[in-house]
Amino acid sequence: MSVVQNGLFSLCTSLRTEGQLRRTLKNFDKEKTKSPTGWKIQLAFGFAILILLIVGASSNRSMVVSNESALRVRHTHQVLGNLQNLLLAMETFESSYRGFVLTGNESDLKSYRANILSSEQHEAAVRSLTVDNPAQQGRLPALETLISQKIQFGEMVVDLRRTKGFEAAADAIRIGQGKRSMDDIDRIIHELQEEERRLLTLRDADANRHLSQTKMILILGTTLGLLIAFAAAWSVHRDNSRRGVAEEALLESEQGAAVILDLTHDAIFVRNPKNEIVFWNKGAEALYGWSKNEVSGRTTHDLLNTVFPAPLAEIEAEVFRTGCWEGELTHQRRDGTSLIVLSRWAVQKDGSGNPVATLESNRDITQHKTAEAHLIRMEARYRGLLEAAPDAIVIVNQSAEIVLVNAQTEKLFGYRRDELLNKAIEILIPRRFLNEHPGHRNEFLGHPQVRAMGQGMDLFGLRKDGSEFPAEIMLSPSGIADGILITAAIRDITARKRAEEHLVKAADELKRSNIELQQFGYVASHDLQEPLRMVASYTQLLAKRYKGRLDSDADEFIDYAVDGCSRMQRLLQDLLAYSRSGTDVTAPREVSCETALKEALANLRVTIAESGAVVTHDPLPAIVSDDSQLVLVFQNLVGNAIKYRGAEAPRVHVSATKNGRNAWTFSVRDNGMGIDARYFERIFVLFQRLHGRNEFKGTGIGLAICKKIVERLGGRIWVESQPQKGSTFCFSLPESGGV
Amino acid sequence: MESVETHIAAFEVLLVEDSPGDVRLTLEAFKDAKVHINLHVASDGEEAMAFLRREGKNLNVPRPDLILLDLNLPKMSGQEILEEIKKDPILKSIPIVILTTSTSDEDVLRSYLLHANCYITKPVDLAGFLKVVRSIDDFWLSVVKLPSEVKL
Q1: Could you tell me if B26 and B15 are in contact, meaning their C-beta atoms sit under 8 angstroms apart?
Q2: Chain B residue numbers touching A576 (CB-CB < 8 A)
Q3: Of A315, A434, A525, A661, which is the most exposed, with the fewest CB atoms less than 10 Å away?
Q4: Which of A348, A255, A321, A246 is nearest to A15 (CA)?
Q5: Which residues of B touch A540 (CB under 8 A)?
Q6: Closest listed residue to residue A343, CA positions, set A5, A85, A719, A624
């Protein structure tokens, strides 16, 4: 984020102001029109056209020359052909008139006439064909003269043959004028032919030269044209690329810069040296609630109620000196709420170094600052907690060096803080544990989680003075950038250990004394029973054998002795029952309370029948308890309800209600005589009776036994009653596992 | 009839009891029940075993038809005596009635586990005791057919 911001910031600072931005754009436009692309292309086209003209002219000329040459060659060939035919005609003419001389046959003169005509035609052709060649023309008159002499000679010979016969004609031929003129004709024609052949050779060479010149020009011209075309194309392409980049820059700046500045959430604005706002982006609108139009020309510090971290003059001095400034400002929004911003200023100076505009980019860090403040508060609170902690707190790093201790650590171990910091944790561990400790520590680092150190082990701390104390240590790991820190909370448990030991001792003592008491009760009642039985049995034997045979005093004494013995026996039996009750509790198991009640009622069958009592009950739950003990409780309570009856026939109702999540309350309600509230406690005490022996039999053991049993089973027993209004005996028992 | 009466009169009962008062009381009770028995008394376990095995001075003593055994005795306890007798192949056929003041369930159970033939708690009053002794006489010496000393 900060990178983006910095990037934007530098973009902004490089542009500085909107005005400068516009100037930059104008410069860019000028550069565009001055672009080298135009004249380069024009030059390239100029070159190309010139080359094409040269190539065209050259090939045109070449074509003309070549045509001329061809014409001349053909012309020469015509001249040569005519000369050849002329020579042939002259030779045929000579031989034809000579044939006529020999034979005198007039038919031989046919070709003679034809050849004269033919030679005249060819001669005329040669004349006209060589009209442009004065040298040839110069030879022609001599040739004409020779030909006309030859023809005249022929005419004369033919005439002689006809008129003077063969001999005259033959003599004329023999004189030999004819032969010589024929040779001359032949020579001149050959000269003419030679001249034409020479011309032909010259013209051929000239035509060839022109052809290769044209070829060269064509090749060169084409290559050059192609090169120029390529160069022009490349130049155009390069300029186009430049033009693309330039166009992007145009987009970024002209419409772009403002749009991009509007994209950022940061508030960005530009102010002139008078601190009047000249540019105000959308981020600023959003952040401060002022629109662009509203702020235009207003002074920023007044508008935003800026609170500076330092005097404004100092800040401005720094801006002037360094060109930029960064700091936290407090601003006020349009709605009056304040915010903290991270503000960055950049200043643009003119050529003479005077500031012309300041760009200010502000980021809202209010939340961040609030969180920071919270963090600082938390840190302080954490420190406070740490120092106030009742446990010694030692924080070690991964290398087992102590990095932090609290006040309690100093107190507990007797070291000063500076004596512990950066020391190995082993300084606080008794020597005999030093071998095992690194292993345990590695194990912890392998599975770092909050746990008690050395479960099931007795731990000790080592004080500075060498003494030890039993300790309980909680470990908790916390990951940091470069590893793990282990926080150990160390508690001195000397007092607790002592209390625990004391408690164990006391519990043992209590247990022993209880067993002794139980044994005492049992032994006393059992062993006292024996001699008492003797006393009772023999007193009774005495009464049986001697009653009425001694005096009346003796009889009365014997009666008291017998009565005392029986009461003593009852008390001993009850004491035995009491001391046994609750001691031989069997393993707790699920007991149906209904079954227990039924068993109790069966035991009371005779009592119930004799009293005419009606015993009812609600459905009773099943609980985990001891069934025989439960039977005893029901039997005692129902028995009492019948025994201490009122005027009416006894009505007893047994019910149970769930009491909480794991308890039942049982109640045995009767319509008996009731109990005064002041006896509510006393009735549960051993051998406490509310009535005379003559009113009700019994030693006062029943409720004491009930209380003992119920308490042994994890419940309690109480009574709710009013005299004459019946009593309700209640007892609670846990639903499961109270024993 | 003679022979039958003679047979009845010939009942031999061994009472293992250390308390002379109880011995006398038992004797009185049998007397009260008008039963003719020969009551032999051993005051501890050693004496009882000597009598049963006819050791020492007991060379000519009869084999008892019934043993009345108290549990609370000096030296050997009643249960040790019981165990000893029931381990003895000759003596184990003699019925043993535990007659004691203990009402402990544990004592009751242990006695039966050691093959006691019955367990009776001495009633604390005289009338009760007389009744119990009369019942023993009725049941064990009249109703029940007891084994004779015949080697199997």
Answers
A1: yes
A2: 103
A3: A661
A4: A348
A5: 125-127
A6: A5
Q: What is the mean pLDDT of residues A681-688?
A: 86
Q: What is the pLDDT of residues A26-60, one digit of tens each?
A: 444 444 444 455 676 777 777 778 887 877 787 77
Output the six-digit token pair for A251: 């987009």
Using the Cβ of B21 and the Cβ atoms of chain A, whether some distance falls under 8 Å is answered with yes
Q: What residues contact A339, with CB distance under 8 A and at least 6 apart?
A: A287, A330, A331, A332, A333, A364, A366
Residues of chain A contacting B31 with CB distance shorter than 8 Å: none
CA gap A509, A475 in Å, rounded: 37
ipTM of the complex: 0.75
Give Cα A598 distance to the centre of its chain.
Answer: 73
Could you tell me which residues come within 8 angstroms of residue B110 by beta carbon, excluding any fewer than 6 positions away? B79
**Do A537 and B19 lie within an 8 Å CB cutoff?**
no
Q: Where are the domains of chain A?
A: 391-492, 493-580, 584-739
Which residues in chain A touch residue B127, judged by CB atoms under 8 angstroms apart?
Answer: 540
Which fold would CATH assign to domain A493-580?
Answer: Helix Hairpins (1.10.287)
Q: Where does residue A623 fall: left (phi above 0), alpha (psi -120 to 50 degrees), or beta otherwise? A: beta
Beta strands A338-349 and A355-364 are antiparallel
- Cα–Cα separations (whole angstroms), residue B62 to B27, B30, B53, B54, B136: 19, 19, 10, 8, 20
Instruction: For the beta carbon of residue A542, count every other beta carbon within 10 angstroms.
Output: 17
Give the Cβ contact number of residue A242 at 10 Å. Answer: 15
Chain A environment of B121 (Cβ under 8 Å): none
Measure the CA–CA gap between A363 and A5, rounded to whole angstroms: 10
Q: Model's pTM, two decimal places?
A: 0.41
Look at the block and give the residue holding tokens 């160069």: A231
Indicate which of A527, A537, A563 best probes the interface with B, i.e. most B CBs within 10 Å of its own CB: A537
The domain A391-492 is placed in CATH, from the list 3.40.50.300, 3.30.450.40, 3.30.450.20, 3.30.9.10, at 3.30.450.20
Choose the mutation target among B71, B106, B125 for the interface with A, i.e. most A CBs under 10 Å.
B125
Strand partners, A487: A395, A476
Grouping H, G, I as helix, E, B as strand and the rest as coil, residue A479 is strand
In CATH terms, the fold of domain A584-739 is Heat Shock Protein 90 (3.30.565)
Selection from A165-174, A427-436, A528-537, A665-674 with the highest mean pLDDT: A665-674
pLDDT tens digits, residue range A121-177? Answer: 888 888 888 887 888 888 888 888 888 888 888 888 888 888 888 888 888 777 766
**Which residues 535-554 on chain A approach chain B with CB closer than 8 angstroms?**
536-538, 540-541, 544
